[in-house]
Structure of Aminotransferase DegT:
Amino acid sequence: MNKQWKQFADGVKAIYKKDFVPLHEPTFDDKEVEYVTDCVKTGWVSSVGAYVTKFEEELAKFVGVKRAVAVVNGTAALHIALKVAGVEADDEVLMPSLTFIATANAVNYCGAVPHFIDVHKETLGVDPFKLDSYLQQISEIRNGELFNKQTNRRIKAFVPMHTFGHAVHMDELIALAEKYHLEFVEDAAESLGTYYKGKHTGSFGKVNAMSFNGNKILTTGGGGAILTNDETLADYAKHLTTTAKVPHKWEYVHDEIGYNYRMPNINAALGCAQLEKLEHFLVQKKALVRKYEELVVNLEGAALFKGPAHSNGNYWLQTLILDESLNRDEVLGFLNDQGVMSRPIWQPMHELVMFEKCPAMDLGVTNILKKRIVNIPSTPLETNL
Ligand SMILES: *Cc1c(COP(=O)(O)O)cnc(C)c1O
């Protein structure tokens, strides 16, 4: 690697004033200590407690949905979101191959089959234009439901994912959902604080999912949420994620197979403290984009990914797109050796042994992008730049 990359690495370390810069770290202060201590001191650390309700209400307000149901992680949120959206065993669910494993796993937990679609280079998320012409070829509507003519399975839903906090082409996807009679469930795991034309992501689909894992923009340690404007579905999601227990003063009666997916109060306490800082995180993330813009001007063969014009993104993970003149693994090797933690994008789902036989459309853009994407340190800075 040449001098420019050395300067870039030094520049990143200078921004963070560190010799080793992690990819994404949580940021805590006295608030987290105060709220978590409150749980420990009062004994309300587990499955019931006031912080869970507070976190759900404040999150729903921030996102602009009627209800949020807090759960143990984003994968669980996706699982239940898909289930309450009506995905059943042997259905197919359209989803990007270029995503984190959780999206495909959640589809599988429903007994359904992931069906992989390609992404758009402008958003790094699903390409509605390519999907439309693909569905015209391979599917047909029978009695108001979409079927895959090749596999004879029902295609029930699709799951757009807002990659690294950049909103997908939402208007076009909503039009597709209507045209093809599909439900959609947003995987908004990475996009808390991301807006599509002024409306928050995770509020478009019938039911949507979010994650608060330790590396996300806001963390509850581990956690997730199901988001919806449908009160009935929210109540059902809450029921399913709390072992489907029928409320009663002392009896243990459960009316279906449920899941022990509820978020513990101690995690929700952490989340309440983090929500108070979310606006600040978003400002700092954008300040970091401007810093990186200055640093990349001298880098040959690499550009900072800025996302599409329709998206006001949270810039969860900062992204370099390399051109073919550069070898991704050499770039990753160099930056990591320099103490600038960097990671490639996920190996696409269609290449993993569990999913290699799943139906898939042409994944040309995915196959190019998988070799060209490098994520660089993205922790919001604590002090104003
Ligand atoms: C983080 C993430 C999830 C959920 O992950 P959990 O670790 O289960 O909270 C789901 N989808 C995507 C795209 C993610 O990045």
In short: The chain has twelve helices and 16 strands. The chain has a mean pLDDT of 96. The chain has two domains: 3-26+278-376, 30-275. Residues 73-75, 99-100, 102-103, 161, 187, 189-190, 211, 213, 224 surround pyridoxal-5'-phosphate (CB under 6 Å).
